[in-house]
Amino acid sequence: MQGAQCTGCSESLLNAANPAIIKAFEILNIDLECHEAFLAQQGLFVDGESVNTSELNSEILIDEISEKGDYILVVEGAIANGPEGSGRYCMAGGCTCKEMFKKAAQNANLIIAVGTCAAYGGINSASSDIVDLLDFRGVAFTKKDPSKGMLKVLGIDKPVINIPGCPAHPDWIIFTLSALISGNIKVPEDLPEVLDEFGRPKVFYPPNYTVHKDCPRYVFFKKGEFDSHLGGDKCLLKLGCRAPSAHADCTLRKWNDGHSYCVQAGSPCIACIEPDFPDNARPLYSISIKKKEED
Known about the structure:
Helix content: 25-40%
Mean pLDDT: 92
Strand order of the largest sheet: 3-7-9
Strand content: 5-15%
Number of helices: 12
Largest sheet: 3 strands, parallel
């Protein structure tokens, strides 16, 4: 299910390469029963009444899947609790995302929160004058606080795996599903060992490793040579790079079928996999622009 998000994590999943997404689903025998963006269903309401069958109506489909139970629920996007606990700041077909999440979560065997928005609230929970009014929540956390996750609000107790990122790497999603389906990770007994304090798989988000460690620009960091503008080849720390505080294997795994990643492509790391993103990375880019003096 999708809450408040940009569909970036689903797009990232479609970019999986080894294996490709369709091949991965075939290998793992995954039955994707519902995905709001992929299915593009219609016919939610006519004159205020829910119509059609689950083949065409996603709300009916979610009801049928929820009643049947025995599934993994993957959530993309934050879930609105505002205004005043109603959840009406995020709706689909007359139903709040909060209510849809409640239906889907109650009978799920496990919940995977994909992307920083689903895991911790992400951009939707960034500090602002209206953040408390909107009150967007992650599944089991809001930022670093597990007491403010949507599951806690709803009084639902389910095991949760967080796969943050803006977006999440396709490998992180597929390999987690693979480990679960193959039985290499048993739920819930293995989760305390394989997850960190913020519910992330340690294998992808190593507690003692950061994006900074194997950075191709690290030699310039050691020499104290820093870029003052984008497009250079030196260390990006003074342009706002947060790699020293970003716990992920991006440097080793890389993106786009292992070809590159943010810092290698010339962008400062914004630590998008951390629970307090984006507040931890503001401003995303620190650039000094000097006005050209006229002759």
